[in-house]
Design brief:
By secondary structure, the chain is mostly helical. Helix content is about 75%, strand content about 10%. It starts with a helix and ends with a helix.
């Protein structure tokens, strides 16, 4: 009985090895997502909305910068006639304004980045759905994106070894 189980196990392993080495003809094609996205009207609208949103922050920062420069110039012009206490107050005002400008710039960058994700997400989702639809209709196994350095944007699940790697790492 042990010999039969051993024979069966060896047969399965050998059979699996031979089957696994059978060459499979894959259909691999490519796309240039930069060209695709540039041709989408939704991307043009998203670009415009993002530029307008970012401009509103830049206008606010420009006003603050002018105020900062004006206060700095006034300080330099009147520094000789100011008392030490007055100098300290004016320097604190200038420093506080500089901190507000830096804080506003950082906040603006974060908000513009979030807005970018918000306005581009539907465009990218639409492009992704179209790519996958074409892949399924044409029977492509992989679609490489030459604009992104050869990143696979579609692949049949049967070629995805992620679950095997996760299992190897003990990740569920």
């Amino acid at each position: 009985m042990k010999k039969f189980v051993m024979f069966l196990a060896c047969s399965l392993i050998i059979g699996h090895s031979v089957f696994a080495q059978t060459p499979v003809a894959l259909k691999i094609v490519y796309i240039n997502s930069s060209v695709l996205l540039a041709s989408m009207p939704e991307k043009v609208n998203a670009d415009s909305a993002l530029a307008k949103y970012a401009r509103s922050f830049q206008d606010q920062i420009d006003i603050m910068m002018k105020e900062y420069q004006t206060k700095g110039q006034q300080y330099q012009q009147n520094e000789k006639t100011m008392t030490d206490a007055m100098k300290e107050v004016k320097m604190k005002e200038i420093q506080d304004l500089q901190n507000r400008i830096e804080s506003t710039q950082q906040s603006a960058q974060e908000k513009v980045q979030q807005k970018k994700q918000d306005v581009y997400s539907p465009v990218l989702d639409k492009a992704d759905k179209a790519i996958k639809a074409v892949a399924k209709e044409k029977g492509y196994d992989y679609i490489m994106d030459i604009a992104a350095g050869g990143v696979v944007v579609f692949g049949k699940e049967e070629y995805d070894v992620t679950p095997l790697v996760k299992a190897k790492l003990g990740i569920k």
